[in-house]
Write a structure and sequence with these properties.
Strands 1-2 form a two-stranded antiparallel sheet. α9 packs parallel to α13, α11 (210-224) crosses α18 (374-401) and α15 (297-333) crosses α16. Helices cover 78% and strands 1% of the residues. By secondary structure, it is an all-alpha fold. β1 (368-369) and β2 (372-373) form a beta hairpin. The structure holds phenylalanine. Phenylalanine (PHE) is lined by residues 18-19, 21-24, 95, 98, 222-223, 225, 228, 230, 317, 320-321.
Length: 449
């Protein structure tokens, strides 16, 4: 049991591996673009710092004080009503639903590494044709790359914390950092760099909408992987002597810096090519490949490096959402790690397959329910409802239910009395109330413009 724990740096890399993913490199730049840049970045930084980081610390606290799977952690830490609180541990189900559609995107990225190597689309319309062709018509390649993605993820988890998760992150995360830093250094030489800085850091309050705040809070959850027992499960395998507050701060800083760096890289490239920042979801798969082509051979190298970075970032995130469920089955149900991993993976692979097909022309009608197809439903239900709901549960549990003395004794030595009081205030009031606002907004009860 003790042997199968992260080393201190292994934990930081693995938790940062979970946090840094499509959210940072794909989603953050386009939602920043669509929400006017500077103001959105400012609001996002504030929410990450105030809400995201406090819930992150709460999750690490629960994992590291119990060293157990999420269901057992809630059970052990609830003084009364264990029967009910243990259900809060089942929020790990959110993670495997995320896995089923996240792996589809990992598959697209693997496909784009090949496209970047073989031949980039020569213009934006052609790039659109390539992407839409893959998404809507080419079921065979999409399923093949999706299957490959799932196999890599399941294989890593089947190998356990040390030989699987830690090893994978120890290789992929430093490689990701090197690629991003190299791309960032290059982007500072581009003509669009200063415009990118202006766009991201100059707050233009005209574009300020209340709905941007909601989006920023939701994204803070998604990008830090909180509210679904993922960070809790990783922290349960933490080395005993780790300073959990320092480690949490390091992870949040790493995650935020990578989002900012990815944004600066992408906007520098975009502005240098004279394109608009508000490109939406197609930014990474349509606009960028066409610009990379126009840049000539350096663009080719950049394209390959970029999609490899995206693959590394997304694989380490996908791995982390499978672990909590497998951990639960291994520790509570005495199922072997191999059986648990491949069993769960198989079920959610099939579910993801349906989501994949729901994007294709042939099956979209059969797999669309109401306003959304299955793929969009999975995304919406997990990121907009289940993750925030999991976050509220966690904040309420740590803020009101868990033994105060235990929390105090664990955290005060690491953060001091003053910061502890601030953290407790954030967990008890700020986090639950603001997350409730997102939930009400998403469900349409509260409408912010
Ligand atoms: N944090 C990851 C990202 O930003 C996504 C993720 C969400 C991973 C939830 C795990 C859990 O892409």
């Amino acid at each position: 049991m003790y042997k199968n724990r992260f080393s201190r740096i292994g934990f930081i890399l693995a938790a940062a591996g979970s946090a840094v993913g499509l959210g940072n490199i794909w989603k953050f730049p386009y939602i920043t673009g669509e929400n006017g840049g500077g103001v959105f970045v400012l609001v996002y930084l504030l929410t990450v710092l105030l809400i995201g980081m406090s819930i992150f610390i709460a999750e690490v606290l629960m994992g590291s004080t119990t060293n157990k799977d999420a269901v057992s952690a809630f059970e052990v830490l609830a003084p009364k009503e264990k029967k009910y609180w243990k259900f809060a541990g089942f929020t790990f189900i959110t993670g495997i639903i995320i896995l089923s559609f996240y792996s589809i995107v990992v598959g697209w990225i693997l496909n784009y590494i090949v496209i970047a190597i073989v031949s980039l689309p020569t213009s934006v319309p052609e790039a659109e044709k390539v992407f839409m062709g893959m998404l809507k018509e080419d079921i065979f390649s999409q399923v093949s790359y999706y299957t490959l993605a799932f196999l890599i993820i399941a294989y890593t988890i089947s190998k356990g914390v040390k030989k699987g998760i830690e090893k994978m992150n120890n290789i992929l995360m430093p490689a990701l950092l090197v690629i991003l830093i190299a791309m960032f250094v290059y982007s500072t030489t581009l003509t669009g760099f200063s415009q990118a800085i202006d766009f991201m850091f100059y707050p233009n309050f005209e574009k300020f909408h209340a709905s941007s705040i909601i989006l920023a809070v939701g994204h803070a959850f998604f990008t830090l992987s909180i509210g679904m027992a993922t960070i809790l499960a990783y922290s349960a395998s933490l080395d005993r002597h780790t300073n959990i507050v320092k480690a949490s701060i390091a992870i949040v800083i790493l995650d935020t810096s990578i989002a900012i760096i990815a944004g600066l890289i992408i906007f520098s490239i975009l502005f240098s090519a004279g394109q608009e920042p508000s490109k939406g979801v197609g930014l990474v798969f349509i606009t960028l490949p066409a610009i990379f082509y126009e840049m000539g051979s350096i663009g080719n190298v950049m394209a390959i490096a970029f999609f490899i970075a995206l693959a590394f970032a997304s694989i380490t995130s996908a791995i982390s959402v499978l672990e909590p469920t497998v951990k639960y089955l291994v520790e509570r149900k005495n199922i072997s790690r191999n059986k648990a991993t491949y069993g769960v993976s198989f079920i959610f692979y099939i579910l993801g397959l349906l989501a994949l097909l729901s994007n294709t022309t042939a099956f979209s009608e059969a797999l669309t329910f109401g306003s959304k197809n299955l793929f969009d439903w999975f995304d919406f239900v997990t990121a907009s409802i289940l993750m925030p709901a999991g976050g509220i549960l966690l904040a309420i549990f740590v803020g009101y239910i868990m033994d105060k003395q235990l929390i105090r004794n664990t955290l005060v030595p690491f953060m001091g009395e003053k910061f502890f009081k601030l953290w407790l205030f954030l967990i008890k009031y700020v986090a639950p109330i603001s997350v409730l606002a997102i939930l009400l907004n998403e469900s349409g009860i509260l409408k912010l413009g």
